[in-house]
Amino acid sequence: MDLKEGKAAIQLARNSAEEFVSGKQVGRPDLPKVFSENRGVFVSLHIYPGKELRGCIGYPEPVFPLKKALEDCAVYACQDPRFPPVQKSELGKIIFEVSVLTKPEAIKCSPKDYPKNIKIGEDGLIIRKGFRSGLLLPQVAIEHNLSPKAFLDHTCMKAGLPPGTWMEKDCQTFKFQAEIFGEKSPRGEIERVKKS
To answer: What pTM value is reported for the model?
Structure first.
């Protein structure tokens, strides 16, 4: 996606969230053609300044057109069950970040070689075992200075699994990439976010 498309994605996410939280019609930006394509996407909300997480929800798989996925995830991020619901008074203190994902692909090698096949800052991870599933976006490994092995372990923990579960035969491990766009300040300039 180019920066113009990234700006439209952020504007759509913010407008959807503000409409939901305030109950007032905000409108929608003109959307490029890519928004009709099915894409996986995450919307992250951060308190400004400092980037403390305020909500993050997404669709890992490309099951909906990008427009619908963004609208849904922006609303759901305002109700992330890990946090109290976002209030109208907070909207001017939150920066929006959108991660548009590639389709997740299984890492095709022996589990002991997974760390060698993960590029920190480029790859995000999904780990599934039984009914448990955990996902970490590519930027998480950078933000927390994680090695590939630690990134795998943290993704296990996100799924509610013990560290090292990724080594087990009945555990599935996938990687994906993301194009990330975000506001520099609330309702401010939008940029492509550097992952490393």
So the answer is: 0.91
Residue 106 near residue 174, CB atoms below 8 Å: yes
**Are 172 and 186 in the same domain?**
no
Supply the CATH number for residue 39's domain: 3.30.700.20
29-35 long-range contacts (CB < 8 A, ≥24 apart) are 31/67, 32/4, 32/5, 32/8, 34/1, 34/5, 34/66, 35/5, 35/8, 35/9, 35/65, 35/66, 35/67, 35/70
Range of weakest confidence among 6-20, 24-38, 77-91: 24-38
What is the total count of domains within the chain? 2
- Provide the residue count of the chain: 196
Cβ atoms of 166 and 159 closer than 8 Å: no
Local confidence band at 195 (pLDDT 50, 70, 90 cut-offs): low
Domain ranges, residue 95: 3-102+179-192
- Whether the Cβ atoms of residue 152 and residue 135 lie closer than 8 Å to each other: no
96 and 184 belong to one structural domain: yes
Render pLDDT for 34-78 as a digit per residue (tens, 0 to 9): 999 999 999 999 999 988 999 999 999 999 999 999 999 999 999
